[in-house]
Amino acid sequence: MRFVVTGAAGFIGSHLLHALLEQGHDALGWDAFTDYYDPARKEENARGLPVARVDLVEDPLELEGYDGVFHLAGQPGVLSFGDVFPLYVRQNVLASRRLFEAAAAAGVRTVFASSSSIYGDAEMYPTPEDAIPRPLSPYGITKLACEHLAYAYGREFALDAVVLRYFTIFGPRQRPDMALSKMIDCLVDGRPFELYGDGTQSRSFTYVDDAVAATIAAMERAPSGGVYNVGGGDEVTVLEAVEGLAAIAGRRLELVRLPKREGDAMRTAADTSRVRAELGWEPATRFEQGLEAQWRWAADRVAAA
């Protein structure tokens, strides 16, 4: 089948594009190579993959002849208050609106990568898909707006769309601004890690290969309009992650404690009953296995530099 992956030079997008090609699909990546983090990291992610430079807000979006589009592009990060908010609106809301419009016009099925950030401090844990969304950050607000856009284009223009709410994806090539990547970089460089809050914040960590499998399953089997949590089986606190990494690396991570950051939820815990029942997907990788894989990748990358 023929697919487009937006955000294909990013962390999850590059893994997804590689998996589609490995399965024998005709898949093409689109990416704007923005500077949210070093574009050289994105060039590295995309090496050997068919990735074209495309700005979803400005460039023509030609989807005729494709069977599906995986929409993973967007401006990430909960630190989205203040003057950067217009950029989040552009890269998330405006970009998604143009993509959904193009997909609807071409009759192309769309899987949209949303985020657990739309829940904020959720009303219940584990959190099901029908929980009231209460995002704590402008980033989460823009992702929720994109979900509403997908629904609106489905209702009014027959867009065949599925929404996935990712819960803290980790593994090799994880974005350098994410906590596990920062921990690993600090260990490698011998620097202290800045711990925001008391470290009891917890996340449903989801290994990237499991997230990719769920994303492909959604394209293949999800009903139009479906909304699914994609979360790992392990809920882990930041301090537990620090201890796990120390055990793998054989040395401890020095911590510098700082106040909690705005927009950062205390807990995420995915209720994955729906995705298990309807798509037959289950996370296959324990947190310790995934953390070791991410550490080995980072160590090999440093050794090869």
Structure, described:
The chain is globular and about 55 Å long. The chain is built from nine helices and twelve strands. The protein has a seven-stranded parallel β-sheet with strand order 3-2-1-4-5-6-10, sandwiched between helices. It has helices at 11-22, 39-46, 85-106, 138-157, 179-189, 208-221, 238-249, 273-279, 287-304; strands spanning 2-6, 26-31, 51-53, 68-71, 109-115, 161-166, 169-170, 193-196, 202-207, 227-230, 234-237, 255-258. The chain is 41% helix and 18% strand. The chain is of the alpha/beta class.
Mean pLDDT: 96
Helix content: 40-55%
Alpha carbon gap, first and last residue: 37 Å
Proportion of strand residues: 15-25%
What is the tally of beta strands?
12
Task: Order the strands across the largest sheet as they lie in space.
Answer: 3-2-1-4-5-6-10
Please outline what is shown here.
The protein has helices at residues 11-22, 39-46, 85-106, 138-157, 179-189, 208-221, 238-249, 273-279, 287-304; strands at 2-6, 26-31, 51-53, 68-71, 109-115, 161-166, 169-170, 193-196, 202-207, 227-230, 234-237, 255-258.
Write the SSE topology.
Layout: E1 2-6, H1 11-22, E2 26-31, H2 39-46, E3 51-53, E4 68-71, H3 85-106, E5 109-115, H4 138-157, E6 161-166, E7 169-170, H5 179-189, E8 193-196, E9 202-207, H6 208-221, E10 227-230, E11 234-237, H7 238-249, E12 255-258, H8 273-279, H9 287-304
Parallel strand pairs: 1-2, 1-4, 2-3, 4-5, 5-6, 6-10, 7-9, 8-12
Antiparallel strand pairs: 9-11
